[in-house]
């Protein structure tokens, strides 16, 4: 008998790193995460990753997937459409401390995103010919890789964790927020607030096995309203009171990064059950 039986309530993919996500009912699980998650990324003229930390308006860039194409909308911009498997010139790109290979999506895409953000950027697609390993400091002997996610294939958050944050925001007369602020892939209910921190092996419908490997440290992006791209410090201020993590040198953490141990090639769906045991 497992300590916990939870249920997947929401699934999200973020085809373009740091742009709006897509809520889905089902997604294909791949070795690097959910299919097409963080498959594209914006870079500056030096090839360095760009995110909402640099351009809050990225929150208003909204992708959608239709067959083998990704359509991209933004305020006051015509729709841009690109093949999900579009080819392009390989170039080195930097994401945090990693330098990996990206495929440049061309001048038309670069011009579109530059106009949308008011700064020169280019769009690259992850070059699957070259793997990007996750840090074995956290994965240990369980080797894993990811595309343009910050560091790991999946991010999990419990609904009770969001409820606890919103309770604290309400007590401070601040506006409540939804889970999109934290950009998870998997949202689950059936556990107490932040008990996702205490789970290691997660068995999904007895066919998929995930492993939580690292608490997710938080930057100011959760302060950005995904509907308006306006930033206010209320979320970070609230987290400072109760989410400092000594394991992470007192950084704020919210949610858990996970890798895929079993089930690559299978679909993961809303409504699936998660069985897990506590690890203290």
Outline: globular
The arrangement of helices and strands along the chain is EEEEEEEEEEHEHEHEEEHEEEE
Level of helix content? Answer: 10-25%
Sheet/helix structural class: mainly beta
Major sheet: arrangement of strands = 1-13-12-17-15-14-19
Mean pLDDT: 97
The number of helical segments is: 4
Can you walk me through this structure?
The protein is mainly beta and 280 residues long. The chain has helices spanning 107-117, 136-139, 159-171, 234-240, and strands at residues 4-13, 22-24, 26-30, 33-34, 40-43, 62-66, 69-73, 80-83, 90-95, 98-104, 122-126, 154-158, 186-189, 199-204, 208-217, 244-245, 251-262, 267-269, 273-278. Helix 3 (159-171) links the parallel strand 12 (154-158) and strand 13 (186-189).
Q: Main attributes?
A:
12% helix; mainly beta; globular; 19 strands; 280 residues
């Amino acid at each position: 008998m497992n300590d916990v039986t939870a249920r997947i309530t929401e699934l999200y993919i973020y085809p373009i790193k740091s742009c709006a996500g897509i809520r889905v009912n089902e997604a294909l699980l791949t070795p690097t995460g959910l299919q097409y998650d963080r498959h594209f990324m914006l870079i500056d003229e030096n090839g360095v990753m760009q995110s909402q930390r640099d351009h809050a308006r990225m929150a208003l860039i909204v992708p959608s997937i239709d067959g083998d194409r990704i359509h991209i909308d933004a305020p006051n911009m015509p729709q841009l459409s690109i093949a999900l498997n579009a080819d392009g010139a390989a170039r080195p790109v930097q994401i945090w401390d990693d330098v990996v290979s990206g495929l440049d999506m061309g001048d038309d895409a670069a011009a579109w995103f530059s106009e949308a953000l008011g700064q020169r950027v280019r769009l690259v697609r992850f070059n699957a010919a070259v793997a990007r390993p996750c840090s074995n400091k956290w994965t240990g002997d369980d080797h894993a890789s990811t595309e343009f996610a910050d560091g790991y294939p999946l991010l999990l958050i419990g609904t009770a964790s969001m409820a606890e944050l919103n309770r604290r925001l309400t007590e401070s007369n601040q506006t409540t927020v939804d889970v999109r602020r934290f950009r998870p892939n998997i949202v689950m209910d059936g556990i107490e607030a932040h008990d996702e921190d205490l789970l290691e092996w997660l068995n999904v419908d007895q066919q998929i096995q995930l492993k939580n490997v690292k608490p997710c440290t938080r930057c100011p992006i959760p302060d950005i309203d995904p509907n308006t791209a306006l930033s206010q410090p209320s979320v970070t201020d609230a987290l400072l009171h109760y989410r400092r993590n000594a394991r992470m040198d007192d950084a704020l953490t919210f949610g858990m990064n996970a890798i895929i141990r079993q089930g690559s090639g299978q679909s993961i769906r809303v409504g699936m059950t998660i069985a897990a045991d506590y690890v203290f």
